[in-house]
Amino acid sequence: MSRSSYRSIVPRYYPVPTDGPSGGLLRAANRSPMRPEHLPFWLTAHGFEPLITMLVRSDDPTSPRTPSSASNGHYW
Fold first, then answer.
1. Burial category of 65 from C-beta neighbours within 10 Å (exposed 0-12, middle 13-18, buried 19 and up)
2. Model pLDDT for residues 19-72, shown as the tens digit of each residue
3. CB atoms < 10 A from the CB of 69, how many?
4. Where is this region: Disordered (predicted)?
5. 9, 47 in Cβ contact below 8 A?
6. Judging by DSSP bridges, how do beta strands 38-43 and 51-56 pair with one another?
7. Helix (H, G, I), strand (E, B), or coil: what is residue 38?
8. Which CA distances in Å does 70 have to 8, 25, 40, 58?
9. Looking at per-residue confidence, does 69 or 6 come out higher?
10. Is the pTM of this model over 0.90?
11. What is the pLDDT of residue 65?
12. Which terminus, N or C, of the chain has the lesser number of Cβ atoms within 10 Å?
């Protein structure tokens, strides 16, 4: 058994750039360019592929639980 800890400052939600291909894709899909507040994680362990994921606040107004958001993640 192992232990780990994590300490971070959670960024506020923010927009992704909308002036390039990503913006065009978001507009075509009728999705918001806002990224939700999130905690990113990059997990590694010997013998396994790295896992990059994030935790997203479920009460964030730009939460991916709404179909118009610009990202996906796990909720806390």
1. middle
2. 999 889 988 988 888 888 888 888 888 999 999 888 877 777 776 554 444 455
3. 22
4. 57-76
5. no
6. antiparallel
7. strand
8. 22, 10, 15, 15
9. 6
10. no
11. 56
12. N
Q: Which tokens go with 43?
A: 């997990």
Q: State both tokens at 38.
A: 């999130």
Read off the DSSP letter of residue 8: -
Token pair in block for residue 44: 């590694």
- Residues 6 or more apart from 14 whose CB is under 8 A from it? 34, 35
User: Using CA atoms, how far apart are residues 57 and 37, in angstroms rounded to an integer?
Assistant: 6
Domain boundaries, the chain: 35-76
Please determine, for residue 15, whether its predicted confidence score (pLDDT) is greater than 80.
Answer: yes
Tallying the residues shown for the chain, one arrives at 76
Q: How far is residue 23's CA from residue 55's CA, in Å, rounded to a whole number? A: 24
